[in-house]
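F.,

This is the one I mentioned.
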């Protein structure tokens, strides 16, 4: 888990000293889809697709045609996003409302890129795009946090209450929102919204320390990810690997 904490620190440090306007993709979109989108976006930007009236009519007709190839529709959306034209952005706003499931994520990314491209043209302020698998909300990034009990021991009732009390009190003091806090038999799962420049690792270290004043029952090692929520199987595998390390 230490390696994951180091990765998180590098992620957090990447924003330090960077000035500009942050755009956070709020939707939960798989990282693989985002990577594919930006690969296609870079391609169509080089191709300089036409954006005259005739081209617009063709793009609209194609998007409304159920028989049109999905890959071509994706390229149209990316072309509109990179065009830096207001009417292209308006088209994307209309498409997102009616987008079918297989294009919904793609259209959401295109809409975000279109907004950034326009603002870059109209403003001298640097535009910074941030996207993660778990998305965000109102300028905050969403993180999944997994904390284990010390030595894998079951939590006692007073320990569960201590965890709920300390985290619910301390995190909002730093403008962090708790979307979900679940205390299970041997571990804690949390879904948090965290300001971009807030050092979540330091906050968690402080709260874990505070909890441990009441019995030293939380492990000092934990997992933070903004890629996806971990499944029960993945959580079990994390703790299994931790146990194997202790044996060695």
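My design for it:
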């Amino acid at each position: 888990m230490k390696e994951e904490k180091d990765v998180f620190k590098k992620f957090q440090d990447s924003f330090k000293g960077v000035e500009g306007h942050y755009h956070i993709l709020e939707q939960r979109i798989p990282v693989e889809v985002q990577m594919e989108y930006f690969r296609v976006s870079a391609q169509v930007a080089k191709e300089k697709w036409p954006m005259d009236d005739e081209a617009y009519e063709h793009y609209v007709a194609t998007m409304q045609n159920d028989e049109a190839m999905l890959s071509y529709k994706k390229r149209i959306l990316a072309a509109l996003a990179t065009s830096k034209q207001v009417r292209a952005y308006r088209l994307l706003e209309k498409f997102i409302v009616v987008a079918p499931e297989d294009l919904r994520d793609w259209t959401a990314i295109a809409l975000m890129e279109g907004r950034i491209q326009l603002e870059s043209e109209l403003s001298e302020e640097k535009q910074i795009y941030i996207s993660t698998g778990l998305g965000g909300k109102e300028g905050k990034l969403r993180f999944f946090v997994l904390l284990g009990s010390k030595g894998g021991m079951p939590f006692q009732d007073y320990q569960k209450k201590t965890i709920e009390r300390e985290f619910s009190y301390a995190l909002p003091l730093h403008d962090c929102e708790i979307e979900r806090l679940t205390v299970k038999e041997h571990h804690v799962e949390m879904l948090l919204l965290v300001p971009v420049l807030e050092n979540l690792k330091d906050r968690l270290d402080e709260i874990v320390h505070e909890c441990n004043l009441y019995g030293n029952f939380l492990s000092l090692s934990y997992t933070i990810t903004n890629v996806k929520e971990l499944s029960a199987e993945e959580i079990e595998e994390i703790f299994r690997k931790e146990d194997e390390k202790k044996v060695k």
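The CA atoms of residues 14 and 25 lie 17 Å apart.

Talk soon.
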